[in-house]
Amino acid sequence: MKKIILTAFTAAILLLFSSPAYALFTVSAGVPFSHSFADTEVAESDGVSGLFLAAKLPIMVGVGIETYKTKLKGSTTTLATSMYDIFYQLPIPIVNLTLGLGMGSTELQCVGCSTTFDKGTATQWYTSVGIPIFPFFDAHLSLRRVSSKIKKTAASGGTEYDLGGTVAGIGIAFGF
Prior knowledge:
single chain, mainly beta, 8-stranded antiparallel barrel, elongated
């Protein structure tokens, strides 16, 4: 009898706390903790800060917005990135796997950057893996692969720089 009760208790805990809860509305917030550039000859990261926000209904794709700034190593220049995202959370039990796409802009910010560099366009794909902590909470890690090019103005030579790379983030989600 003791073995049956222990087995039933273990099964109930696994079912209740390891499968995602189906909330009507889910809100997610996260922060970037790493940004690495694909071409280290162009730029290297010296830290990143910002915010990722997302919202999702259970029967539709979700939408998100993100904005973050990456300080470039050895200078006072920062790369400001703003994106609008759409995503879909795959219906997989135990983990919350999300796939998404984003589109936005990048801009170098420094003294004189606005006259030397044009604002660039950016696109990304990303994935996020979330582990449910309690039925309506989730902690997740995300990885974004960003493609971004910034061009010098025609008066400054018109050279194009590849500032694409990888951004990693961590966040939490709450459903209600």
